[in-house]
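=== RUN LOG ===
request id: a7f3
mode: sequence -> structure
chains: 1
length: 66
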Amino acid sequence: MDAAAPRMARVTRVLGRTGSRGGVTQVRVEFLDDVQRSIIRNVKGPIREGDVLILLESEREARRLR
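=== RESULT ===
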């Protein structure tokens, strides 16, 4: 798959809120084209388990919450 192409990923778990005011949610996503691979991403706005995200950049992973 082309590295520059957007990839679709499904939210499998909501891990918690982050950011200075809690405006960002940290989620674990698994890619629809590669179910074995899952990463942690930060998402701004309303999100829940089962939502599908289109990730323009899929190599970078968010740091874990403390």
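=== NOTES ===
The CA atoms of residues 33 and 51 lie 15 Å apart.
The chain is about 0% helix and 45% strand.
=== END ===
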